[in-house]
Design goal:
With 151 residues, the chain is an alpha/beta fold. It has a single domain (4-8, 23-146), classed as 3-Layer(aba) Sandwich (Trna Endonuclease, Chain: A, domain 1), CATH 3.40.1350.10. It is built from four helices and seven strands; from the N terminus they run ββαβαββαβαβ. Strands 1, 2, 3, 4, 5, 6 and 7 form a seven-stranded mixed beta sheet that branches. The termini are far apart.
């Protein structure tokens, strides 16, 4: 299996703390979404780290290897699990072009590393976005959840 993935700790959907490494400005967005949708998922992983980059690891302890890979990895804000379905979630106040690129990258890395092509979906949770982003996400099969859409 190419690449490296680190899930970290599994969190119950009712856990209301600050997710590890989530930007402070995005935490209220996530908390509002989680409070409205916690019963739709089985559990969450936060700050899931993935990379296809291979590092030289000789003479490194397992902890050193994990830290090195973790430092260069791309990080998914939330990996939500429901039955066999996985949702790779980018959380942001305003979804924009960068959000789309992040989700596409997360999907590619996850599918390449795990070999799992089915049962994985990209999602953006945001307060709002615009039509260009919504249409682009629709084209790529990325679900967008707007908590406070602007007209």
């Amino acid at each position: 299996m190419p690449g490296w993935i680190w899930f970290g700790d599994r969190y119950p959907t009712t856990w209301s703390g600050k997710p590890p490494q989530m930007l402070d400005r995005d935490v209220p967005v996530w908390q509002e979404f989680r409070e409205k949708n916690y019963d739709k998922y089985d559990y969450f992983y936060y700050n899931v780290a993935m990379t296809l980059i291979e590092l030289p690891t000789e003479n490194m302890t397992p902890n050193m290897i994990r830290q090195a890979y973790y430092a260069i990895s791309k990080r998914v804000d939330v990996l939500a699990v429901k039955d066999r379905m996985k949702f790779l979630i980018e959380v942001t106040t305003r979804a924009a072009v960068r959000s789309i690129g992040q989700v596409i990258t997360y999907l590619f890395l996850y599918q390449t590393i795990t070999g799992e092509k089915e049962n994985v979906k990209g999602m953006i949770v945001c307060n709002y976005t615009d039509k260009d982003i919504l249409e682009t996400c629709k084209h790529y099969g990325i679900e967008v959840v707007q908590l406070h859409p602007i007209a």
